[in-house]
Here is the input.
Amino acid sequence: MNCRLLVAATLVFVAQSAHAQSPRGLSSTPEEFESKLGYQTGTVTLKNGLATIRLPESFRFIGPEGSRRLLVEAWGNPPAAAEDVLGMLIPSDASPVTAEGWGIVITYDEDGYVDDGDAAKMDYNKLLKEMQQSASQSNEERKRQGFDTVRLVGWAEPPSYDRAAHKMYWAKDLMFGSNSEHTLNYSIRILGRRGVLVLNAVASMDRLTAIRSETKNVLNAVEFNEGHRYTDFLPGKDKAAAYGLAGLIVGATAAKAGFFKLLWVGILAFKKVIIVGAVALLGALKRCSAAEASRRPENSSI
Here is the structure.
């Protein structure tokens, strides 16, 4: 299987794992469980001073341990899903252990400085068509491997990049197999000197309006601290990422950087969440992606 198809099979395996998972019961009442998540308000610091979040009134913050408990114990994720989570933003007006609950998972990819020189020339409609074509071409192989097909319906929210603030967001509308329910993949990226803060909204498609209305608040709330900011980059001294803004959107980092990191969100009918890291295929993907990168300059995945 070539690199693109291996990545595609991994994505669908993750989605199928989400749909196969059963909800897990809490050992305490939802109220008791939520009271121990360690909510914080005001100003919080991420990763030993890497970045600061000045929380708007519409959000609360929970740190790594509270995030682990929520993701694993309440939402039924495997423990590996919470290993690199720096924290989560939880809406103030909804409990995360109810059907209406949702949150934003925060991680950090220290892959180097992402050059935003391609921002002005990116054609998002063309980018979408290329990703849709790639998904469609991979579906026959998915079926042969026994996995559901996946359809990239379109942008749930078109990409938008603020070049002055070095912040970007977009959302994809996805459908898996014969499931008529759409899956939302909402992404926020904040560029820094040595990497990117990754914020992924964990929510079902019916939460799109709520997330969209809060996107500006989230973007304004999170900032890299001095010494870690995008403008602190030292050319020739600091590491540069092997991909640009287009790579952030299409997920082409595996082919360009020789590694594969994946945090995939699958929403179940009962609004519980499964986040699965493709750990088992990491070694194979490293090898095949490096080979793929040497053969062609660009690659795209869902």
